[in-house]
């Protein structure tokens, strides 16, 4: 691999991990959301490099465009940027970091102990992840899951509307007690 | 670039997402950490899709994105509903079943 390619991937990796850490550490929820948008955009560039242009643009439109705007909207609507800083459970943070370290050690062990060798990612044709190919596969082989996802989206929309509807006064029609 | 670069990046991002769910108390930030974990899984899907040259991985990423969008819509609606009764989105105060 040429040097410029290595620099490209290392830079993208640093930006992705740095923005994820920024989301984790930042106390202000709005800054956390903006860091997450940066992370999504970086991952979209990685998708492009992996030969998935359709998925990359869907990532930008759906995640960075729609979902994160919804997040920002709700954060500003609730005025919930910051919570008072106290820790209700003692040692909570240390235990969490210990568990994360255990998880990372497990992953590293798996990486070094597995008895499988992997080669480099093969060179892909430009047609591989094109919208045409994805459409053909999605509407022939995966038609039923596509319809199921459509129903899930519909029910989520109805559920969100029902949940945020302001509760109406329930008319109380108790029978009056007669003397 | 070797396969392990993408897998390692995805593992680190997933771990940061798990840390976010465990460490943070703001329920909205916990949702964002969930999205980060979804993203790490999606990266593995796309990586293996191009490694084995099978398009199924990319289709699954598309489905995961749709389901994540639905989940976020319902989850944020729940947050708004909880905020109405409790006036806080601190996850430690959501410990009672009845508002």
Could you characterize what this model shows?
The complex is a heterodimer of chains A (179) and B (99). Chain A is an all-alpha fold. Chain A contains six helices and no strands. Chain A has helices at residues 3-25, 29-49, 53-78, 92-113, 131-140, 143-164. In chain A, helix 1 packs antiparallel against helix 2. By secondary structure, chain B is mostly helical. Chain B contains three helices and no strands. Chain B has helices spanning 3-23, 27-52, 56-86. The interface between A and B is large, with 78 and 67 residues.
Task: Offer a concise description of the structure.
The complex is a heterodimer of chains A (179) and B (99). Chain A is mostly helical.
* Shape verdict of chain A: extended
- Tally of extended strands of chain A? 0
Number of helices of chain A: 6
Structural class of chain A: mainly alpha
- Total number of domains of chain B: 1
Assembly level: heterodimer
Total of helices of chain B: 3
Helix/strand order of chain A, N-terminal first: HHHHHH
* Low-confidence regions of chain B: none
Give me the CATH architecture of chain B, please: Orthogonal Bundle
What is the name of the CATH topology of chain B? Helix Hairpins
What percentage of residues of chain B falls in helices of 4 or more residues? over 70%
The averaged pLDDT of chain B comes out at 87
Which CATH C-level class of chain B is it? Answer: Mainly Alpha
The main pleated sheet of chain B reads as: none
CATH classification, class level of one domain in chain A: Mainly Alpha
In the predicted model, the low-confidence regions of chain A spanning at least 5 consecutive residues are none
The description of the largest β-sheet of chain A is: none
Mean pLDDT of chain A: 84
Q: N- to C-terminal separation of chain B?
A: 52 Å
Rg over CA atoms of chain A: 24 Å
């Amino acid at each position: 691999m040429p040097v410029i390619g290595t620099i490209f991937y290392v830079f993208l990796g640093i930006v992705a991990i740095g923005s994820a850490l920024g989301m984790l550490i930042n106390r202000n929820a709005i800054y956390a959301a903006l860091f997450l948008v940066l992370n999504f955009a970086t991952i979209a560039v990685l998708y492009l490099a992996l030969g998935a242009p359709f998925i990359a643009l869907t990532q930008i439109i759906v995640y960075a465009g729609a979902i994160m705007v919804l997040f920002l909207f709700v954060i500003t609507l609730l005025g919930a940027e910051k919570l008072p800083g106290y820790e209700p459970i003692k040692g909570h943070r240390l235990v969490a970091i210990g568990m994360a370290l255990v998880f990372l050690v497990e992953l590293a062990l798996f990486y070094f102990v597995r008895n499988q060798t992997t080669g480099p990612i093969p060179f892909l044709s430009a047609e591989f992840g094109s919208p045409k190919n994805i459409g053909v596969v999605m509407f022939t082989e995966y038609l039923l899951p596509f319809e199921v996802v459509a129903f899930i989206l519909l029910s989520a929309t109805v559920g969100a509307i029902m949940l945020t509807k302001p509760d109406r006064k329930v008319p109380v029609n108790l029978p009056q007690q007669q003397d | 670039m070797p396969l392990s670069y993408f897998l390692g990046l995805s593992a680190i991002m997933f771990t940061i997402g798990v840390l976010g769910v465990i460490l943070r108390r703001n329920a909205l930030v916990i949702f964002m950490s969930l999205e980060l974990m979804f993203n790490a899984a999606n990266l593995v899907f796309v990586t293996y899709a191009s490694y084995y040259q099978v398009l199924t991985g990319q289709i699954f990423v598309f489905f995961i994105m749709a389901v994540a969008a639905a989940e976020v819509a319902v989850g944020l609606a729940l947050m708004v509903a909880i905020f109405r009764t409790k006036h806080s989105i601190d996850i430690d105060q959501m410990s009672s079943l009845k508002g």
